[in-house]
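Human: Here is a favour to ask of a fellow structure person. Comparing notes only helps if you start from a blank page. I am asking you to supply a protein in sequence and structure-token form. Write it directly below this note and I will take it from there.

Assistant:
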Amino acid sequence: MTRSVFIPPISRRSLLVAGGAAFFSTPGLFADELMLTPSMTEGPFYPDKLPLDQDNDLIIINDSTMPAVGEITHLTGRILTKAGTPLRNATIEIWQCDANAVYLHTRDSSQKKKQQDQNFQGYGKFETASDGGYRFRTIKPVEYPGRPAPHIHIKVSQNGHELLTTQLMIRGYKGNDRDGIFQRAGDLVQRELVMADFKPLAGSKIGELGASFDIVLGRTPDDRQLQ
């Protein structure tokens, strides 16, 4: 006699959200796996000329003493496989517009009436260690013309292979529901996977924020990159 297996529906209550990654399990069928971070468009303004300073601190350029304008945010997280294994030696890149809504891209900056913040790096990268962790110091993203949902662009690669391009949104932001690109990220659960809370950083005396966002990758053309 064939025995049926009851698979409970996934609800928001059943999701355990941890820094942007949600855990789910199907009792009796599979081991717990992480839900994959949805891919999203790269957009038109990946820097057309990368800055000389490409470190993970976007607030200070080189040895300047003048910081960028904006709400300083410490963005941290891990890059994981769907089995939860940390991905070592992965490169994560982030880029975003400055507090004046200008990207580090000549086509964008030349069309804007607002002055580009010369103290904002606009782009940074970080290579993960054995724990898969990454960290950046940047600004809380702001609205951009045509994009009512503030966002940070993210690209993950390893050994010359691009593994994922996505975007990070602010959880609960009023413009999210009007942002077509965010809405195309997927259903309610999938959209939850590309959002993070931007909260006051404990112990900060200058009003800094903290945001945690784990990135979960699936199979790639060369799956050995995820071993």
About this structure: Confidence is low (pLDDT under 50) at residues 1-31, 220-227. Helices lie at 106-109, 180-183, 188-192.
